[in-house]
Amino acid sequence: MRSRRSVLAVPGSNPRFLEKAQTLAADEVFLDLEDSVAPTAKAEARANVVGALREGDWGGRIRAVRVNDLSTHWTYRDVIEVVEGAGEHLDAIILPKVQDPTEVVWLDTLLTQIEKTTGLDVGRIGIEAQIENARGLVNVDAVAAASPRLQALVFGPADFMASINMRTLVVGEQPPGYTEGDAYHYILMRILMAARAHDLQAIDGPYLQIKDVEGYRRVAARSAALGFDGKWVLHPAQVEAANEVFSPSQDDYDHAELILEAYAYYTTVERRGAAMLGDEMIDEASRKMALVVAAKGRAAGLSRTKTFSP
Predict the structure, then answer these.
(1) To which H or E segment does residue 198 belong?
(2) Cα 96 from chain centroid (whole Å)
(3) What pLDDT tens digit does each residue of the chain (310 aa) get?
(4) Of 88, 22, 93, residue with least CA distance to 52
(5) Cα–Cα distance between 263 and 161 in angstroms, integer?
(6) pTM attached to this predicted model
(7) Residue 180: CA atoms inside 13 Å, Cβ hemisphere, count?
(8) In degrees, to the nearest 5, what angle opens at C-alpha 42 toward C-alphas 37 and 44?
(9) What are φ and ψ of residue 155, in 5° steps?
(10) Measured between alpha carbons, how far is 84 from 104 in angstroms, rounded to an integer?
(11) Closest CA to 6 of 22, 31, 23, 29
(12) What's the Cα-to-Cα distance from 126 to each of 66, 92, 107, 181, 224, rounded to whole Å?
């Protein structure tokens, strides 16, 4: 899986923002046709998105489009026009407000039909499923298993909070009166478990107080600590914070690479299943944990500063 530390949302109806997004250091950029686009601007936004995908310079970023949810009459035209117009420049479709695995199956089927018709490689375009209400969370395991195209599960906090009648208007912050623990812990862990059980990435949703970068960093650190791979960003100022929070520190990255190198040496040269690295015992479980940190460090472009000596 490619890195999704920072996932930048860009309104498809705003050509200036579409151009600006190409200069930002986000791992993924998704061009939005849903909530950030007014109903009367949907058709124009589709054309903008196709043009931006075809003509823009997106570098190595993941290029995605969020279509409208299946309760609307826009979804099928979103998928057809974007994929037929710029499918070779598209990495993933984000399907919002997913409640049932059949919705993912529908999108998979439509993508396959378009790919076969237009000569695109069948199955190359991935799907990210956004979990945004109680029914979607209850069905999240089935959603995660619905298609081999699935690459990530995404938490949509604003709609989710509304769906369960959470008593707050500040997206991502603890509701007033909730003084013990974290009101989002179960939701985040439920999504994370479903994602990991099916080898998917888990992405946290946006933090709407866009000028409060420290607030963003604090909330992002919560999901990063649990094991999430990244978080949506709504403003250029949040991109750097997301990339930093969801990357391992240099010390942690170096330590992970040392564990991998040392364990390989001790198990092959000295044929030991457990050994000491300094004052720390390392074994197969240590190797698995180190693989996670090392992979994230490599994806973030970190370089080693320490080497192992037996």
Answers:
(1) none
(2) 13
(3) 789 999 999 999 999 999 999 999 999 999 999 999 999 999 999 999 999 999 999 999 999 999 999 999 999 999 999 999 999 999 999 999 999 999 999 999 999 999 999 999 999 999 999 999 999 999 999 999 999 999 999 999 999 999 999 988 888 888 988 888 899 999 999 999 999 999 999 999 999 999 999 999 999 999 999 999 999 999 999 999 999 999 999 999 999 999 999 999 999 998 888 888 988 999 999 999 999 999 999 988 889 999 888 8
(4) 22
(5) 45
(6) 0.92
(7) 0
(8) 110
(9) -85, 130
(10) 19
(11) 29
(12) 12, 4, 10, 35, 23
How many CA within 13 A on the CB side of residue 116? 6
Residues listed for the chain: 310
Query: Taking the mean position of all CA atoms in its chain, how far away is CA 144?
Result: 14
Q: Which of 207, 221, 135 is nearest to 173 (CA)?
A: 207
**Which amino acid, residue 133?**
N
Alpha helices in the chain (DSSP H): 15-21, 42-55, 75-86, 101-118, 134-138, 140-144, 157-163, 185-197, 213-226, 236-245, 250-268, 284-299
Residue 152, classed as helix, strand or coil, is strand
Cβ atoms of 5 and 242 closer than 8 Å: yes
Task: Say which residue the tokens 């979103």 belong to.
Answer: 78
Q: Any idea what DSSP says for residue 202?
A: E
